Amino acid sequence: MKTVRIAVWVAVLLMAGILGWLTLNVTKTKEAVSEGPFGVPFTLVAQDGKPITEQAFRGKPTALFFGFTHCPEVCPTTLFEMNGWLEKVDPDGKKLQAYFVTVDPERDTPEVMNEYVSNVSKRIVGISGAPDKIADVIKGYRVYAKKVPVDESNPNGDYTMDHTASVFLLDSEGRFSGTIAYGENPDTAVKKLENLVSKG
Prior knowledge:
Oligomer: single chain
CATH architecture of the largest domain: 3-Layer(aba) Sandwich
Keywords: Copper, Disulfide bond, Membrane, Metal-binding, Transmembrane, Transmembrane helix
Protein name: Copper resistance protein CopZ
Pfam families: SCO1-SenC (PF02630)
Mean pLDDT: 87
Number of helices: 5
Largest sheet: 7 strands, mixed
Strand content: 15-25%
Distance between the termini: 63 Å
Family: Belongs to the SCO1/2 family.
CATH superfamily of the largest domain: Glutaredoxin
CATH class of the largest domain: Alpha Beta
Domain Thioredoxin: 33-198
Shape: globular
Number of domains: 2
CATH topology of the largest domain: Glutaredoxin
């Protein structure tokens, strides 16, 4: 009976050790994920027609927004507000950068992005690219985007896009650092960007 009891205790201690080791490794894995850059590698096209990669989101903290130029309200409002936040938090443009990635590459060519974004801001850079590459980026950055026909009876006609309306905040190493929600209090948005800059 005593031998059985000892065997049970040995088994319990062994299981506890295994569970402890697994927990430690899972925690380390999660930390490694959170410490790595957000999103996926990509090669797209900036509004000036030059190639741009995920390395653009390094070196300075970044405000990153996904939208499209035919957007009736959310996108123009967000871009206008972003420009104001940037001017307030970093008037010289040396500490903070911002990008606008299209979720509608079929219509939003680099030329269209350049005209659209330049009318709102000199601080925000528009990004477009091939539809398949944009789709990979949308998925990799965990953005929701869906084409919605304006007229359901004509699915191949004019369309709009449903999409994530938050601004993603990345630190200078490209790591996820939070979001600014659509319609967020302007003072809160500015404070979040100030915190992002101070964190580096």
